[in-house]
Amino acid sequence: MAEVSFINPLSDEGRHIIREYGDLNQIFDVDDNLIDICTHTYNQKISDDTLIPKSLYDLAMKRIQWAIEKKNNKNFTQSEFEYLTNEDLLTQDVVTFHILCQAIAIQFNTGSRETRLFIESQGNLILERLAKIPPMARTEIIDEVLDEVKVDGSIQWKTLKEIIASKKIKLTDLLIDDGQIILQQDDFLYRFGDEFTDRSPERMYNILIGDSVKEQILSRLIMQKTEEYINRIKEMSARIEIHPAIIKIAEDLKEFIPDEISKYNQYYAGSGGIYGTVQAGKLNPEAFPPCIKSTVEGVSSGGRNDAIVLLLTSFASYARLYPRIFASDESVKVSDMDPDLSITENEILPLIFDAAENCTPPLFDDQPQEKINIISKLGFGMHDHVDINHEGETKWYTPMSCEKIKIHLPNLCHPDKSCKGINNPLSCYGRKKFQLDKQEPKD
Ligand code: SF4
């Protein structure tokens, strides 16, 4: 049967492997055993020598590359990474997992695109591995891992709200009793065994609680544990000395992740699209559509608050940091594009605050609380300044559509020819900026 720590590297067994591992400097050494196992993994593609990791450092990078390719590469080929599902790599896998958690914790913000990528990939890897285990053994390992993961002895359905929201499982797929999810056979028989007189309770358990629901829940729970583990390391990293090997991986990941994503993601790559890719760059007021120009010049009371807090805040932040929002299905945060928030503080907020000052009367003179509303629309909660630790408390508000502006702020909408055929000021800005950039003489 598969080892628990191959599914849950945070298990007691996984922690034992880490304690026994020894000097972390060896992760950069060529590991013949690793090469041998990877090369002989069933279905592994070996036509190209670069496909096979040579050291634990390589394995860590390959694991991140797998996550990026699986998510972004339309021609993703699992056989190039098949060794990631080979249980013979148990020790190397557990060590790599812990190294990556530490490197990510010290290099990236909690909730950043990079941290989310790693946590999600852990959940996906678990599902890949479970899919390779024969059904009987799979049921056994799932139950064993679930037993270990549910520290408090039960799983509350509220802890799974994200997976239900993602539609991977439906609330109606779950058997809930007293707010607790019933997943294991023993628990089911204990609670409901007496209710079935004319049929076998075991059979009813198999009908009602399928393995696929348990797998999804298990994967989700381990993602949660991974996130908590990374957060704990982040807190501790200010007080303890980090091993140089971890620092090296953390620094390399900072370059490696955007480099790899840029092969598939137009936001990073900067090419393609009908008007070319709208790239993030300094705001060009010349390209602002009429409604935004009027707002920046100042609005008189009436639509003043909505113009600054709802229209301009979302427009300026997305136009500067992530103009492709409507072409992307990713959920993003300001710090994904502006990790130290310097652009937000030095370019975006001054533009918004200036526009607020230009209003008649100046917006903050009689309504200083609107500053907090602006910060909250950028995703940093109800505070008077942007702080990375508050990010995620509220959502980064997406730009209003022309239709909404026409209804709520009709005085600001005076379309000109740049507005033709668009339905959002951001699209109007992207098209005009692209045309203006094209006209600029090249050096
Ligand atoms: S049509 Fe849209 S972009 Fe143009 S002024 Fe009106 S609201 Fe702004």
Structure description:
It is a single chain. The protein has 443 residues and is mostly helical. It folds into two domains: 4-152 and 210-264, Up-down Bundle (Transcription Elongation Factor S-II, Chain A); 280-439, no CATH class. Helix content is 55%, strand content 1%. The protein is built from 21 helices and two strands. The chain has helices at 4-7, 12-21, 32-39, 56-72, 90-107, 113-132, 135-149, 161-165, 185-192, 201-208, 211-237, 244-261, 266-269, 290-297, 304-321, 334-337, 342-358, 363-366, 370-377, 402-408, 425-439; strands spanning 176-177, 180-181. Strands 1-2 form a two-stranded antiparallel sheet. Helix 4 crosses helix 5 (90-107) and helix 5 crosses helix 11. The longest helix has 27 residues, at 211-237. The chain is globular. Residues 266-277 have low confidence and may be disordered.
Summarize the structure.
With 443 residues, the chain is mostly helical. Helix content is 55%, strand content 1%.
Helix and strand topology:
Layout: H1 4-7, H2 12-21, H3 32-39, H4 56-72, H5 90-107, H6 113-132, H7 135-149, H8 161-165, E1 176-177, E2 180-181, H9 185-192, H10 201-208, H11 211-237, H12 244-261, H13 266-269, H14 290-297, H15 304-321, H16 334-337, H17 342-358, H18 363-366, H19 370-377, H20 402-408, H21 425-439
Helix pairs in contact: 2-5, 4-5, 4-6, 4-12, 5-11, 5-12, 6-11, 7-11, 9-10, 15-17, 15-19
Bound molecules: iron/sulfur cluster (SF4).
Whole-number tally of structural domains: 2
Radius of gyration: 26 Å
Question: How are strands sequenced across the largest beta sheet?
Answer: 1-2
Number of continuous helical runs: 21
Sketch the topology as an H/E string, one letter per element.
Answer: HHHHHHHHEEHHHHHHHHHHHHH
pLDDT averaged over residues: 86
List of distinct ligands in this structure: iron/sulfur cluster
Largest sheet: 2 strands, antiparallel
Q: Beta-sheet strand percentage?
A: under 5%
CATH topology of the largest domain: Transcription Elongation Factor S-II, Chain A
Cα(first) to Cα(last) distance is 64 Å
| Structural class by sheet pairing and helices | mainly alpha
Relative helix content:
40-55%
Based on the structure given, which CATH architecture of the largest domain is correct? Up-down Bundle
Poorly predicted spans: 266-277
Shape: globular
Number of DSSP strands? Answer: 2
**Which CATH class of the largest domain?**
Mainly Alpha
